[in-house]
Amino acid sequence: MSTPHPPKHPLGQLLLDQGVVFGFIALLIFLSFVAPHFLSRNNFFSILTDAAPLVLLTLSELVVMLVAGIDLAVGALAGLTGALAATMMLAAGLPWPLALLFALLAATLGGLLQGVIINYLHITDFIATLAGLSIFSSLTLIVTQGEPMNINASGFNAIGESHLLGVPDQVWIAGIMVILVALWLGLTASGTHFYAIGGNRVAAYRAGIRVRILRSLAYAFSGFSAGLAGIIFAAQLATADPNAGRGDELPAIAAAVIGGVYLFGGRGTVWGALIGALLLSTILDGLILLNISPFYTELVEGVVILLAVMLGYLKKSGTV
After folding, report:
1. What's the predicted TM-score (pTM) here?
2. Which of 1, 52, 58, 247 could form a disulfide with 174 if both were Cys (CB 3.0 to 4.6 A apart)?
């Protein structure tokens, strides 16, 4: 006979279930006391503005990780999208809405191509997206000739400058995407199938779920959401920077993991991923306000990731 697990302490279980939320609240309280101007309205919107691209990249990772994948190319694809949009506006003379549309289409196709390679050619997610990272980064350098491209399209630049009801446009874009993805994953058959695929791919096959098609769709969405992040990067700076997005795949993966997304698929929520992204952005803001060297940013991120993974392990094993 197997020995039953001892009953879990209610407080311990609550901390495991909502640990990232409590951690985020504790961080806000701490910084409100020690960081000057942290509670100001300008700083609040500064955090949200800085977090907008990270939120979009985290949504990319969330959807891919739900189907037991990983996408190391989201940052590079974001940079390429901004470069393509700038080139189509400056060199081809396209109106900025068309340039955005075509650039986002290219990003979506780039993500879909990775998904097809992974699911139909049976290349592992890590290798395929690592190759994608190198390819997209190189294409960005080729398109920009390694130099920043200044963008003078007022309508495009307004994305990084304008406000609606007092809220920056880029925050609206990220917020709308969060709501749409939450509805998609929570209310549609494909969203339910994503969780099933990540939970048990063999069982999903046997249940008649089109695993390869849906996993490829997850990568196509990842490309689209990364492309939106790239558009925001370019609009914020009014420049297509050849280095934009480089390395941002790691904070995006970190934010997803911190928010409770399981690295091996089948578990995670949009709201958890959102909290993870906001937590990382708030930590960075706090380091700046406290005049702490940015060299410590990755150190802090690493510690937070370890704590999040440990929390997830304890929750899964039922040791608390």
Report:
1. 0.89
2. 52
At 285, list the tokens: 């803001």
Helix axes of 96-120 and 211-237: crossing angle, nearest 10 degrees: 150
Per-residue pLDDT of the chain in tens (320 residues, 90 and over written 9): 444 444 444 444 444 446 678 888 888 888 888 888 888 888 888 889 989 999 999 999 999 999 999 999 999 999 999 999 999 988 777 898 999 999 999 999 999 999 999 999 989 999 999 999 999 999 999 998 888 888 887 778 888 888 888 888 999 999 999 999 999 999 999 999 999 999 889 999 898 899 999 999 999 999 999 999 999 988 888 888 888 888 888 889 888 988 888 888 888 889 989 998 999 889 888 888 888 877 777 787 777 777 766 766 665 555 54
- Which amino acid is located at 285 in the chain? D
Task: From 15, 38, 37, 19, select the one nearest 281 (Cα to Cα).
Answer: 38
Q: Could you tell me which residues come within 8 angstroms of residue 29 by beta carbon, excluding any fewer than 6 positions away?
A: none
Q: How far is 144 from 94, CA to CA, in rounded Å?
A: 17
Residue 96 and residue 85: Cα distance in Å, rounded?
8
Q: Which domains does the chain have, with CATH numbers?
A: 45-317 (1.10.3470)
The letter for the amino acid at 298 is E
Gap between the Cα atoms of 273 and 23, Å rounded:
14
Phi, psi of 200 (to 5 degrees): -160, 100
Specify the 3-state DSSP secondary structure of 240: strand
**By the 8 A CB rule, do 189 and 176 touch?**
no
How far apart, in whole angstroms, are the C-alpha atoms of residue 109 and residue 111?
Answer: 5
- Total length of the chain: 320
Q: What are the phi and psi torsion angles at 123 (to 5°)?
A: -90, 135
